[in-house]
Amino acid sequence: MDLGNLGNKSSKRSMGSHQGESTYIDKGFFKVDISINGKAIKLGVDNLLAFEEEDLDELSDGALDKALDQCSYYRFTFLAAGAEIEAQIEIVNRQFTSWYAQATKEAKQLIINQRKIQKDRDKVPNSWFGSITKQEIEDTIITDPQMAKKYNEFQDTLTELKKNLRILFGLRDTIQDRGGHLQSLGKRRLEHQKNFGVRYGG
After folding, report:
1. How many domains does the chain have?
2. Three-state SS across the chain?
3. In the chain, which ranges are E strands?
4. What is the pLDDT, as a whole number, of residue 108?
5. Phi, psi for 6 (deg, rounded to 5)
6. pLDDT, block means (10 residues), the chain with 202 residues
């Protein structure tokens, strides 16, 4: 899954100015390209996150209806994509739990072997070592080259999935807020039409 920085970096969107300097954000930042279990979603959210006209009252009734439809469509898209990622997180967590159980057994055996070497070398009694602790097991897993590699792969995968989940649900909430704003605008227009017979564009 890729979010952002997928478009033409020379294409930029003005975000106003500060102390006389214009601020720009690459339009590619607003690109969403998702592929989860063979399900692909590719879209640009630039126009969804910002109104095309600065003056909302200038939106035609048709444009307003279209924008509301887009909000509903994309809100569901982000929700569905987020649900797919949540399911993938659960799968990876189960895989990690299964792997970690086996890694724990291997780590314990490594610790036992190391203790045996130290016992024979330093002539210390078994009681000197004590029980193998959870911290010892964790330390062994994250320092053993092979186990550490697999451990980090799981953690990196989960971190990326959780990051993308936050972004998708953030987009969902943003689109929902925009939809609510547009609905409020539509209600005000209906009231104006009832009271004054005013229509807005085609």
Report:
1. 1
2. CEECCCCCCCCEEEEEEECCEEEEEEHHHHEEEEEECCEEEEEECHHHHCCCCCCHHHCCHHHHHHHHHHHHHHHHHHHHHHHHHHHHHHHHHHHHHHHHHHHHHHHHHHHHHHHHHHHHHHCCCHHHCCCCCHHHHHHHHHHCHHHHHHHHHHHHHHHHHHHHHHHHHHHHHHHHHHHHHHHHHHHHHHHHHHHHCCCCCC
3. 2-3, 12-18, 21-26, 31-36, 39-44
4. 96
5. -110, -10
6. 44 44 54 67 60 56 78 84 91 97 96 88 77 94 96 96 89 83 76 62 53
Containing structural domain, residue 136: 2-196
Is 202 contained in some domain? no
Residue 201 inside a domain? The answer is no
